[in-house]
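tool_call: predict_structure(chain=1)
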Amino acid sequence: MRPEYLGILISGLTASIALTESGRMTKGETVLVTAAMGGAGQIAVQLAKSAGNFVIGTCSSESKAQELKVQKKLLECENC
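tool_result:
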């Protein structure tokens, strides 16, 4: 494995474990993802949406919230 892939691997594992083990996520839930523009946050949004959930994400700035909306990663994005 190339070393530059290590960051995405760790972010993906973090998101997956948080949603499935800690959060016990199932289909049809509302999932809150804090720091939705961060590495693990972006993956968590995608995993939660692909599992059939409604996702709400928080961001640190309006520009990050707009970027999430542009990318259509969230159905609703609330700025914190």
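agent: The chain has one domain: 3-79. Proceeding to next step.
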